[in-house]
């Protein structure tokens, strides 16, 4: 957890590897996942690097594996994943893998081509069978001269031409020619119209649908087709009809004219279809066996190929020395893991059989290192929330450890309901308890993946919401009377029943004790419940907001001390904390003072009349008068101030707070100007022959002049004009932000009140109707209304209100809290790691 507060210390190392040991060493570093390599050949084209041929070979192997995987999925064959660690194969094993994949691909393509040819032949024979069967009906009708309207689609209408095509042929003594074939069913209407227009009605078309769908040998889809036969007279019409059939992609088949020839052909077709079925079955069995054998190893093969490809991609980032026998690399590694890096390189050298050990040198650099935090499945979700705003600068204080507590707490302040929090807690607990099988399912649902990725965040939000629900004494808009109310009614029952409402006065209707935990349940039935909760939650929101922002300023002090920026401590932190404390923290003290010092029972004692509830001054009016230097007026016998000397003390606080503004604005640019002037004078003295002493007394701290980056990695010195502009913007942003950010925390009050009121409205408008039903049907009505109430509770109060509270909480952390100390200008540490690379590849496949 220590490295979570501040990123790991990183080192830039130079690595020298023998060419024969480079592959094995990089493989071991990939398994370790702790080295981020830099590209030492940025100007070299990707196709001109040393290992480009090996990368191409890996791409080709990946293509073949994807082809095998597609065929395996097409046959719905399950792939086996043993879960065992697959090491990167040696370079010489690439030849064996290539040969295996080449053999499998060729065999599978040959089987597929044979199967496609057999299926095409089978389709042709099936279509011919249907043609012989259907056209037999047509020829029988021709002989019987009986036209069946249910199977006929003639383009010749007797009312137009006055005679049938058959009659015309008989009278003229000519013989009708015909063609028969098969066409897609949806093309029949257009086919008929084209024949009518192109042949001017001088053809006779008969068609019948094939009942069963046929399989397309190319795509494997089921298609519906129809058999047709076209009668015509003359070679000219024959040519025209064949061209139209070709244009509509109709398949024509030879059809004998005599019944005996058609019968013999049908018998032969049936025999060939039976033989083809046998051959097709054997072909499919062989294809299935090949795919089942490949499915057992496909995952392992993918892992091996991807590891080889990743290794050669990384080797392409290296440089070659002049002898072409040594590879030179540069990489960022965590300082704490240097020993593990050495051990990995030693293992790689032993695996390769090289006698020359690798050399790892730590380099001195002024370049800003990457940011690296050691995370686990619990902290990863919270770190993602911070990284969405910006990756922490190198060695900058990380807000994540604090966010683990403050984020669910601020969410719960807005979402506080014991019932709703319990629903959220149970859902997240189910995800946490079943996370391994849920991860194994590899869902492609984006919304589910977001919820599952933040399961630990939701778990804490549910726990904190249950706590604040207890404090608010709110369970699905109802209250729990666990300890018994501290309020009591002195009137008799008859007096209570005679009045519609009863006023409870805290002077004589409240015991000397308070409810042990949270709100007294009597407020649930009070008519002034909203007024009371308004005042309470608004003040609590201000107190939480000021404490949260002051904590952010204190974390900024931790940053300044770590980077030894004394000038920032003197010119930024001190005036900032004074300004915040003297104005806004003082406001919180006034709230506590009012809560503690004023009570209703003090009105019963004449000597404590000024501490009675009716004399309690408004905190808001007091604060406004304080800022405006305006005196408060006495009202009746009540003192206008909470304590003696308050007016003078408040003016003192405001004056000191206002003096902090020019302090923040001018002190830092002035000190930097004087320091640079002093350094310039020292250089002039050196040029004049005097000796410059190192580390003069005017130094304000290392890195003070580099006023920008937290890591102090700049070589460039910021100009004085830029420093003044930057400091002016920073001062204005902080001063105005203290006011606007404090007001922004009032969203805690607003959303909490809205959530409670929406929950109460949903109960009174929906659930109360079901509970009011009586009689035998009351249970049925209650069951239906409870279902509607539960659905609305989950959909609106838990999901929509939860999402709204989540976004507001995120804003409070990003804008109000983190801007006090967090720059977020770093870049992530992305090590060469097989595990993350394979995980990214699997996620890409799922998408």
UniProtKB/TrEMBL annotation:
Q: Which residues form a coiled coil?
A: 51-128
- Ranges that cross the membrane: 409-432, 453-472, 540-558, 570-592, 652-673, 775-800
**Chief location of this protein?**
membrane
Give membrane topology per the record: Multi-pass membrane protein
Summarizing the function annotation, the protein's role is: Essential component of the vacuolar proton pump (V-ATPase), a multimeric enzyme that catalyzes the translocation of protons across the membranes. Required for assembly and activity of the V-ATPase.
Q: Which domain of life is it from?
A: Eukaryota
What organism is the protein native to?
Answer: Orchesella dallaii
Where is the protein found, in the record's own terms? Membrane
UniProt entry keywords in alphabetical sequence? Coiled coil, Hydrogen ion transport, Ion transport, Membrane, Transmembrane, Transmembrane helix, Transport
Q: What is this protein called?
A: V-type proton ATPase subunit a
């Amino acid at each position: 957890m220590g490295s979570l507060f501040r990123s790991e210390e990183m080192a830039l190392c130079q690595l020298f590897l023998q060419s024969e040991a480079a592959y094995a060493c990089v493989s071991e570093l990939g398994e370790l996942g702790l080295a981020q390599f830099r590209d030492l050949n940025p100007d070299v084209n990707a196709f001109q690097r040393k290992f480009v041929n090996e990368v191409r070979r890996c791409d080709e192997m990946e293509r073949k594996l994807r082809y095998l995987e597609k065929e395996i999925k097409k046959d719905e064959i399950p792939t086996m994943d043993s879960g065992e660690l697959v090491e990167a194969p040696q370079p010489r094993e690439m030849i064996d893998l290539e040969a295996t994949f080449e053999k499998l691909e060729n065999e599978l393509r040959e089987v597929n081509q044979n199967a496609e040819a057999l299926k095409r032949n089978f389709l042709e024979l099936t279509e011919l069978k249907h043609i012989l069967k259907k056209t037999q009906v047509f020829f029988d009708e021709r002989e019987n001269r009986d036209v069946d309207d249910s199977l006929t689609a003639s383009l010749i209408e007797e009312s137009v031409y006055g005679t049938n095509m058959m009659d015309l042929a008989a009278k003229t003594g000519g013989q009708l020619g015909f063609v028969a074939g098969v066409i897609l069913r949806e093309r029949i209407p257009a086919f008929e119209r084209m024949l009518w227009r192109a042949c001017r009605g001088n053809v006779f078309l008969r068609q019948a649908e094939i009942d069963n769908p046929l399989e397309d040998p190319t795509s494997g889809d089921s298609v519906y087709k129809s058999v047709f036969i076209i009668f015509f007279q003359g070679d000219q019409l024959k040519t025209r009809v064949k061209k139209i059939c070709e244009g509509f992609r109709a398949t024509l088949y030879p059809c004998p004219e005599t019944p005996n020839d058609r019968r013999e052909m049908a018998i032969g077709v049936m025999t060939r279809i039976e033989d083809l079925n046998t051959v097709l079955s054997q072909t499919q069995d062989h294809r299935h066996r090949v795919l089942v054998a490949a499915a057992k190893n496909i995952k392992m093969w993918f892992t091996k190929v991807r590891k080889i490809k990743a290794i050669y991609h990384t080797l392409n980032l290296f440089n070659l020395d002049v002898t072409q026998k040594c590879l030179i690399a540069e990489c960022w590694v965590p300082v704490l893991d240097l020993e593990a890096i050495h051990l990995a390189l030693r293992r790689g050298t032993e695996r390769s059989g090289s006698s020359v050990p690798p050399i790892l040198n730590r380099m001195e650099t002024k370049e800003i290192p990457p940011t690296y935090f050691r995370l686990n499945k619990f902290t990863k979700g919270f770190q993602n929330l911070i990284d969405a705003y910006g990756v922490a600068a190198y060695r900058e204080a990380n807000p994540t450890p604090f966010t683990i507590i403050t984020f669910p707490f601020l969410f719960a302040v807005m979402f506080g309901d014991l019932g709703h929090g319990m629903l959220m807690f149970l859902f997240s607990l189910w995800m946490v308890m079943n996370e391994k099988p849920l991860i194994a399912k590899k869902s492609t649902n984006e919304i589910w993946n977001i919820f599952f990725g933040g399961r630990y965040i939701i778990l804490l939000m549910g726990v904190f919401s249950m706590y604040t629900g207890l404090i608010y004494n709110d369970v699905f808009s109802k209250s729990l009377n666990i300890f018994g109310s501290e309020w009591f009614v002195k009137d008799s029952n008859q007096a209570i029943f005679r009045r519609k409402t009863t006023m409870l006065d805290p002077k004589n209707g409240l015991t000397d004790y308070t409810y042990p935990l949270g709100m007294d349940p009597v407020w649930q039935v009070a008519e002034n419940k909203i007024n009371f909760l308004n005042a309470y939650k608004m003040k609590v929101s201000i107190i939480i907001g000021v404490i949260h922002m002051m904590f952010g300023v204190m974390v900024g002090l931790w940053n300044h001390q770590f980077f030894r920026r004394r000038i920032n401590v003197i010119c930024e932190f001190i005036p900032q904390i004074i300004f915040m404390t003297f104005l806004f923290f003082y406001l919180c003290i006034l709230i506590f003072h009012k809560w503690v010092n004023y009570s209703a029972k003090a009105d019963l004692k004449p000597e404590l009349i000024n501490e009675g509830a009716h004399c309690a001054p408004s905190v808001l009016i007091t604060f406004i008068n304080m800022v405006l230097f305006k005196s408060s007026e006495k009202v009746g016998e009540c003192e206008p101030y909470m304590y003696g000397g308050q007016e003078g003390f408040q003016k003192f606080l405001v004056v000191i707070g206002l003096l902090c503004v020019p302090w923040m604005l001018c002190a830092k640019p002035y000190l930097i100007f004087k320091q640079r002037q002093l350094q310039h004078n020292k250089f002039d003295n050196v040029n004049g022959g005097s000796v410059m002493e190192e580390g003069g007394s005017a130094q304000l701290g290392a890195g003070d002049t580099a006023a920008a980056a937290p890591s102090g990695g700049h070589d460039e010195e910021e100009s004085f004009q830029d420093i003044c502009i930057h400091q002016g913007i920073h001062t204005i942003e902080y001063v105005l932000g203290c006011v606007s950010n404090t007001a922004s925390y009032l969203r805690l009050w607003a959303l909490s009140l809205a959530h409670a009121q929406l929950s109460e409205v949903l109960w009174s408008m929906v659930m109360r109707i079901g509970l009011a039903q009586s009689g035998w049907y009351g249970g049925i009505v209650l069951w239906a209304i409870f279902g509607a109430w539960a659905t609305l509770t989950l959909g609106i109060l838990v999901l929509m209100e939860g999402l709204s509270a989540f976004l507001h909480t995120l804003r409070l952390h990003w804008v109000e809290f983190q801007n006090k100390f967090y720059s977020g200008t770093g870049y992530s540490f992305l090590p060469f790691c097989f595990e993350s690379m394979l995980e990214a590849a699997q996620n890409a496949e799922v998408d």
